[in-house]
Amino acid sequence: MNDIEIGTARTGGAGRVTGWLDLAHYPDGSSMRAPVVIVTGAKAGPTVWLHACVHGNEYCGTQIIHTLLRSLDPDGMAGRVVALPALNITAFNAGIRMSPFEKYNGGDMNRNFPGDPGGSLTQQMAAAVYPHLKNHADYLVDFHTAHTHDVHWALYAALDGKVGETGERMAKAFGYRDTLATPPGMLTGSAMMTAAGDGIPALIVEAGGKGPAFLRKNVEDAAERLRNVLRALEILDGEVDDHGPIANFSGFDWVHAPRGGLFRPSVACGDAISAGQVIGEYFDIYGAPSGTAKSPRDGTVLAIHPGPVMTNGETLVHIGHDPRKD
């Protein structure tokens, strides 16, 4: 395979190399650098690009990528894996979703691809990453994490033709039942949809929970599912496991909390819910029940606020619409 260079990570035949990719600069002038790992196989093949922590405190994805990388043997690979396990490095180090240095504009990196070298900090960081992704990746898998340990769902870019067909094949190989076939015009500015628009089949995985909701078993499970994706893409040898049909959604909603208070959810990820169903209960500061949260529509719970407290406007629940088995 041809050698590649991403920041200071430079390949030289089969094997593993590490390095740093400069994204921007701190106030003291030092570099904001994201770590890069490249594993090149002994045989020619496609390149899969993996990244995690586009949202800095979603650490489960970092651990999934590390677990996958530790298992790879270049002699048994056909192709290459490029991994940025802590992409939004300043948010990663601060333990928050978006960069603490983002001052003026929306700091959600997953709405700012392909970036803008003359834009905000987050736009400039995205612009430092995306040309490498576009130039080198044949496939993209982007890892995210939500509130609770039982979050297990995925999204693929459902564009017409080979990009969408291959994205669905990747989703089926990963094998989470709850999956959103993401149409054009949805999640604009995400790495997934931007890459798909450039002809790169792309998958987002939402796996596991943040903070105390982190579970090692979720990491091990997702890393093995990722290996299955690499088998489906013929980067690794072996039979592709069949995880059964996926439940493709027609769309999904982020439902924001209309009020604050102490909160106790009454549904879990993967549950089917109906419009008007109680999905949680509020309590006042004295511990007395003070109201209920209800679902605005039918669907499947993709993520639910874990409590124990929330303020107005926080994400209450993610709901997948109209699941169909494919």
- Helical/strand content category: alpha+beta
Order of helices and strands: EEEEEHEHHEEHEHEHEEEEEEEEEE
- Report the helical percentage: 10-25%
Using only C-alpha atoms, the radius of gyration works out to 20 Å
> What global shape is seen?
globular
Major β-sheet strand ordering? 3-4-6-5-7-10-8-9-11-20
Protein name: Succinylglutamate desuccinylase/Aspartoacylase catalytic domain-containing protein
Organism: Pseudooceanicola batsensis (strain ATCC BAA-863 / DSM 15984 / KCTC 12145 / HTCC2597) (Oceanicola batsensis)
InterPro entries: AstE_AspA_cat (IPR055438), N-alpha-Ac-DABA-like (IPR043795), N-alpha-Ac-DABA_deacetylase (IPR053138)
Cofactor: Zn(2+)
Question: How would you explain this protein's 3D organization?
Answer:
There is one protein chain. With about 325 residues, the protein is an alpha+beta fold. It folds into 2 domains: about 5-245, 3-Layer(aba) Sandwich (Aminopeptidase); about 250-325, RNA polymerase II/Efflux pump adaptor protein, barrel-sandwich hybrid domain (OB fold (Dihydrolipoamide Acetyltransferase, E2P)). It is about 20% helix and about 35% strand. The chain contains 6 helices and 20 strands. It has helices at about 60-70, 90-95, 120-135, 160-175, 190-195, 215-230, and strands at about 5, 10, 15-25, 30-40, 45-50, 80-85, 140-145, 150-155, 180, 200-210, 245-250, 250-255, 260-265, 270-275, 280-285, 290-295, 300-305, 310, 315-320, 325. The strands form 4 sheets. The protein has a 10-stranded mixed β-sheet with strand order 3-4-6-5-7-10-8-9-11-20, sandwiched between helices. A 4-stranded antiparallel β-sheet has the order 12-19-17-14, with no helix packed on it. Strand 1 and strand 2 form a beta hairpin. Helix 1 packs across helix 6 (about 215-230) and helix 4 crosses helix 6. The radius of gyration is 20 Å and the shape is globular. The two termini are about 35 Å apart.
